Amino acid sequence: MSGSDLKSELDLAALRAGDRAEFARLIDAYSPRVYRLALKMLQNPQDAEDILQETFIKVYNALPNFEGRSSLSTWLYRITTNEALMFLRRKRPPQDSMDETFGGEDGYEQPRQIVDWCCLPEDELMSEEARANLDAGIQKLPEGLRAVFLLRDIEGLSTRETAEVLEISEAAVKTRLSRARFQLREHLSTYYAERLLNAD
Amino acid sequence: MCDDHEYRDCQHLLDSLSDYVDGTLGEELCAEIEQHIADCEDCRIVINTLEKTIYLYHTSAEQDPPPIPEDVKARLFKRLDLEEFLHF
Question: What pTM, to 2 d.p., does this model score?
Answer without folding.
Answer: 0.88
